[in-house]
Design goal:
With 822 residues, the chain is an alpha+beta fold. It is built from 19 helices and 45 strands. A ten-stranded antiparallel β-sheet has the order 1-2-9-10-11-12-19-16-15-14, covered by helices on one side. Strands 6, 7, 8, 13, 17 and 18 form a six-stranded antiparallel β-sheet that branches. β3 and β4 form a beta hairpin. The relative contact order is 0.08.
Length: 822
């Protein structure tokens, strides 16, 4: 069943009941200030770093799951309710939540009073703005009191959840009932000490009352659903001192029948230079001038409406870079709206802050951010350039890398380990994608340090060389790359051998000196090693390019000789030199990663879709037969039913979940792309639809998570709850599936000298038009598609037939019309 519907014209998903199978969320903000917001107003806000600059508190693993957020309580003549349903859970006569691009609205109505709240982070601002519209829909006058609520986090989200002996004594606030633009509450915990930042929560009218102490507002032994102050109908004017600081304003609203009133609430983050911290240094009163300026920019509904219009225009501009018009509305809405939107969210968040990632344990991933870049580089190439420099600056001189870095400091850390041997090659992938999109060859000369250490700067191209050489210099007895801690699959830990409960599989190595090898990294090296050779050649380094291609050929040969199991590619060799992913074993016979990536790299491709002897065709046929399910392709099959100490974490999951036979959606696009490489577009499109959320909307009661964004994992065919998704939003699936659909199924991808136009989508989409902006020119590409297996398109560019499938880049400002017949 469905719990809402798409509104494609508004670019929104409309949720029509609060009782979705799981909280369905949206992200607000795309620069420095971010909010996570569920359809029930749950979630939290932070500035840049979800760990180090958390503004509001959120408790994961709570009951119910979505407890805590920014709430608005209504006391209507003693009847207390919340328009978001949670936390009071009073029945509503009407409920609707609309998640749009960077904004959401939540509307609840009860007993003739309708309350609609618009939430968004304006472009260029470090604040969440909420516009509340209260309407009397009854035929009699109404007077009600609104009580807002946010709970401040004491900045460091991890410390906030653990260090109670200190934190229950440091909470501080200031209250400004008569601010220049209404009433304001300031969260200034630790501001007297080493911090230069504070938060403000304000309403654009003089509040009738306030509360800043959580225990007073909620009441001892109460939950948020039975908060004492809203039930009393009057604020207590409490001032937090230590304990738990909150922000709450009460506003009485009197309305005639049909009348509405609008209020604006602002939750903002401010910083002051050290010499401007205080308005009154002697009494240490916070300098509120920046806050007053912020609140002045959103003092009226008209200002808020203008900021929302600017936000919508911002997204219209971004999404005009790539769009498709076809007869398949689900395809169009995913390509034109939701997939690209999710790519931007993963650009901002990496894997750090969602309803499944707390924002505490992980920063920005080296591997993750390079892959995410593939999905957003066409939207914001200038920010992709900055991201590449940030990532490369955390690399080590030997070419290896930190596995993650913190967004606030941009410095690498080893909290979840390092030595993942696929990491270095992803930098080549990201840089190549950026240059193809932008034509900015100068980035290769940009001086970039190692480990952010001043004085170690070398040109970025040297970093790529170190990435390439790291794989060349770290090969095992079969000529395949060593796996290190793990490769792309963090849970395939071939040097761990853990028997200690709680021991990290990613940071512990109990068997040093092993020669465990990865066929996946080998395929990755063939693909991106060739890309490195192309970059070298275009820099005039013919000898470097030639040598690089020699190494690529060696590894390609090693894959075919030592990485082939007869019907599919092996996954790896373990610590003892035994093959993993072989038909000779009863479990884990075939793994998805090398099948997709090896074919993407052109290994064993043969002469086309009918070449039954080609390893690529055999491997992909085996994938279809053994890994296929209605919900996507499982990671390996059969799943492991016992702990395999030599394999590590992968065998700790129950069969069918996560890396143990789950549908890990991130790697499904590799097989989708691989099917287009061999000319089987129909099969590729079928795989695409199995995991793409818009096509799964009708089974939302099974899928459970949002029907507008990809999930990291869907439970596999051996799981108890097959088809159930987990971990939505922050997944490399977003970028890779956009690459798969936009560049390979629809077949329009940037290259160094022009756009490659090579559609492979099968007969279900007989015609479509792609509009693609590249390097300032607009390309209107109309495709007439027979869907014949193996057929490739013939092109006409501005009325003239051309050989091949490359449309040269045109001058900025021009429009190029391309007609393609497949």
């Amino acid at each position: 069943m469905r719990y809402g519907h798409f509104d494609d014209a508004a670019r929104e998903y409309v949720i029509t009941t609060p009782h979705t199978p799981y909280p369905w969320i949206n992200y607000l903000g795309s620069e420095q200030f971010f909010s996570l917001l569920s359809h029930q107003a749950g979630g939290y806000s932070f500035y840049r770093d979800a760990k180090m600059r958390r503004l509001t508190r959120y408790r994961y693993n709570n009951i119910p799951a979505d407890a805590g957020g920014r709430y608005l309580y209504v006391n209507d003549g003693g009847d207390v309710w919340t328009p978001s349903w949670l936390p009071v859970k009073a029945d509503l006569d009407h409920f609707e939540a609309r998640h749009g691009l960077g904004y959401s609205t939540i509307t609840g109505e009860r007993n003739g009073l309708r309350v609609e709240t618009l939430f968004f982070v304006p472009v260029g601002e470090n604040a969440e703005v909420q516009k509340v519209t209260v309407t009397n829909t009854s035929d009699a006058p109404k007077t009600a009191t609104l009580f807002s609520f946010v709970e401040f986090c004491l900045w460091n989200a991890q410390d906030d959840q653990t260090n109670y002996q200190r934190n229950l004594s440091i909470g501080e606030v200031e209250v400004e009932q008569d601010s220049p633009h209404g009433s304001a509450i300031y969260h200034k915990t630790e501001y007297r000490e080493r911090r230069d930042h504070y938060a403000v929560f304000a309403v654009n009218t003089r509040a009738d009352g306030f509360d800043t102490d959580r225990d007073t507002f909620v009441g001892q032994y109460n939950g948020l659903g039975e908060a004492a102050v809203p039930r009393a109908g009057k604020s207590a004017d409490s001032v937090a001192s230590g304990w738990y600081p909150i922000g709450s304003h009460s506003v009485e609203v009197s309305l005639a029948p049909g009348e509405s009133r609008e209020l604006v609430y602002v939750l903002g983050y401010l910083e002051n230079p050290d010499d401007e911290k205080w308005a009154d240094d002697a009494h240490q009163v916070v300098n509120k001038a920046p806050a007053h300026a912020l609140l002045g920019r959103f003092a009226t509904s008209e200002q808020v409406d203008a900021a929302l219009d600017a936000l919508k225009a911002h997204w219209t501009g971004l999404l005009s870079t790539y769009s498709v018009t076809s007869t398949d509305e689900k395809l169009d809405r995913m390509v034109n709206i939701w997939n690209q939107y999710q790519c931007m969210v993963t650009f901002n968040m990496s894997r750090s802050a969602s309803f499944f990632e707390t924002g505490i344990g992980r920063g920005m991933g080296f591997r993750d951010s390079n892959q995410d870049l593939l999905g957003f580089v066409h939207l914001i190439p200038e920010r992709a350039r900055e991201r590449i420099i940030d990532i490369a600056s955390t690399q080590f001189p030997d070419g290896s890398a930190y596995h993650q870095y913190q967004p606030l400091t941009k410095r690498g850390n080893n909290d979840i380990g390092s030595g993942f041997n696929d990491d270095p090659l992803w930098l080549i992938a990201g840089v190549a994608a950026y240059i193809k999109e932008s034509g900015d060859w100068g980035i290769l000369d940009e001086p970039v340090p190692f480990d952010n250490e001043a004085g170690t700067e070398v040109p970025l191209f040297e970093h790529l060389t170190r990435s390439f050489r790291f794989t060349v210099d770290n090969r095992g007895p079969h000529g395949l790359p060593l796996i290190g801690r793990a490769d792309w699959n963090d849970c395939l830990n071939l040097n761990c051998f853990s028997t200690t409960p709680g021991e990290s599989f990613q940071t512990t190595e109990n068997q040093a000196g092993g020669a465990a090898e990865s066929v996946f990294i080998a395929a990755q090296f063939v693909l991106y090693g060739a890309e490195y050779a192309n970059l070298a050649e275009r820099r005039g380094l013919a000898d470097v390019a030639s040598e690089a291609r020699k190494y690529v050929d060696e590894v390609r040969a090693a894959v075919l000789e030592h990485g082939w199991d007869g019907q599919w590619f092996l996954r790896a060799y373990d610590y003892y030199g035994n093959p993993i992913g072989t038909d000779a074993k009863p479990e884990g016979k075939i793994w998805i990663e090398p099948q997709g990536f090896a074919v993407m790299a052109g290994i064993g491709v043969g002469s086309g879709p009918d070449d039954a002897e080609a390893p690529a065709i055999q491997a992909l046929d085996s994938v279809n037969e053994m890994l296929g399910t209605p919900h996507g392709l499982v990671l390996q099959y059969p799943a492991y039913t016992t702990y395999q100490i030599e394999l590590g974490e992968v065998s700790t999951y129950p069969p069918g979940y996560k890396e143990n036979g789950g549908i890990f959606c991130h790697n499904n696009p590799w097989v989708i792309i691989a099917e287009t490489v061999v000319g089987r577009g129909a099969q590729a499109f079928d795989y695409y639809k199995r995991i793409t959320p818009a096509y799964r909307e009708e089974i939302s009661d099974t899928h459970k998570l949002e029907p507008y964004v990809y999930a990291q994992m869907i439970a596999g065919k051996e799981a108890v709850r097959a088809g159930e998704a987990k971990n939505s939003w922050l997944t490399g699936t977003a970028a890779w599936n956009f690459v798969a659909v936009s560049q390979y199924l629809l077949g329009v991808r940037p290259d160094y000298d022009g756009l490659v136009v090579d559609p492979q989508i099968g007969p279900e989409v007989p015609s479509y038009t792609v509009t693609r902006v590249a390097r300032g020119a607009t390309y209107e590409i109309t495709v007439t598609n027979s869907g014949t297996p193996g057929a490739r398109g013939t092109l006409t560019v501005d009325g003239a037939p051309v050989d091949g499938n490359v449309v040269p880049y045109a001058a900025a400002g021009s429009t190029v019309r391309v007609e393609v017949t497949v």
